[in-house]
């Protein structure tokens, strides 16, 4: 009898814990929220990569997720700001 009660209690605890399980967490793609499996974002990213897109103005398709994937690609292609460049690469006087 005790094992049945323990099993039932464990089952209730497991069921109550499901919403906090990582499998239920919303997926993201490069910081953008996905509605399902991020396939639209991936398609936009892949399209931008294949077509060498460098300006977000070109990410103007009919799908928000596609556009966000394209935007993610464009954002990755931007050069690093001066404070992100390693000292030996940013110092032009070192070659003199």
Can you tag this structure with a few keywords?
48% helix; two-stranded antiparallel sheet; 96 residues; 2 strands; 4 helices; mainly alpha; globular; single chain
Report on this structure.
With 96 residues, this protein is mainly alpha-helical. It has helices spanning 2-17, 39-50, 64-77, 87-90; strands spanning 28-29, 32-33. It has a two-stranded antiparallel ribbon. Helix 2 crosses helix 3 (64-77). The chain is globular. The protein starts with a helix and ends in a 6-residue tail after the last helix.
Task: Furnish the topology, listing elements before pairings.
Elements: H1 2-17, E1 28-29, E2 32-33, H2 39-50, H3 64-77, H4 87-90
Antiparallel strand pairs: 1-2
Give a concise summary.
This protein has 96 residues and is mostly helical.
Q: Can you tell me the residue ranges where pLDDT is under 50 for at least 5 consecutive residues?
A: 5-22
How much of the sequence lies in strands comes to under 5%
Class by SSE composition: mainly alpha
| Shape, principal axes of CA atoms | globular
Q: Specify Rg, calculated over alpha carbons.
A: 24 Å
